[in-house]
Amino acid sequence: MSKPAIITAAITGAIHTPSMSDAIPVTPQEIADAAIEAAIAGAAIVHLHARDPVTGAPDQTARAFAPILQSIRAQSDCVINITTGGAPTMSVAERVQPAQTWSPELASLNMGSMNFGLFGMLERFKDFRHDWEPAYLGNHDILFRNTFADIEYILTTLAGSGTRFEFECYDTAHLYNLAYFRDSGLIKGPLFIQTVFGLLGGIGAHAEDVTHMRRTADRLFGDDYVWSVLGAGRHQMGIVAQSAAQGGNVRVGLEDSLWLGPGELAASSAQQVTRASEIIQGLGRNVATPDQARAMLELKGTEAVGF
Questions:
Q1: Which of 8, 110, 123, 282 sits at a 20 to 30 Å CA gap from 97?
Q2: Nearest to residue 76, comparing CAs of 33, 23, 13?
Q3: Structural domain for 194, as ranges
Q4: SS3 of 79, please?
């Protein structure tokens, strides 16, 4: 019998801007409510960013996360995953601060530097409510810095907290970087590897790209990792189906895609979780509960978190 599939819901992120969709949660309460709704729909893990409640710009201060975390924990037993990616324009010290402060069960960790091209969105979205949005999206000079020193800094900063990682890998080189840190003894399995497809600057979203990343991870990590995928934009559900059919796990949510289907904006991350759950169950698999996800990833449990 196949293992249940973990669904992660990435609730708001730092890519899509508020003017693109009214469904993007911005205030702490909106973000918390969206996370709780996604968990009710079947997400075992909620991946969290915070935003300025007025402008909707990314906010990576620990205090911005506090009301979000408190509200979710009061109403749900889902696994909370705090970003250390923040936004590409932030320093590594800024990016690690919320996870360092709150010691969640999971934190994301990007495994390599990359060009980060968001400017294609300006072809589809023209009207913006905030001045920062078109300037942020139109920047052709974004280098998302995740050097070996940066990665080691995050690993060592969180080493004593018991927090484990969602290792975000945007290309095959990132898998090799992860293998280096594993071989150096700074991390141990089971590794939760989130392979990311379809963002300009990373690997593409063709089915063969997905297969190549899976084969590379199999070769490097054997049975000591848990494989998950996320597809950016319109690629989201197709890649969900490919992973689910191969026994993998999935990530959806408005951070990664605004869409439910062709030409149809998603009303919420929860709606995308429901669609992913239908795909998984249609393939004869079960959707993992939070406790099943904890067991698969060897997490510390809610009784040990820092909030």
A1: 8
A2: 33
A3: 7-304
A4: strand
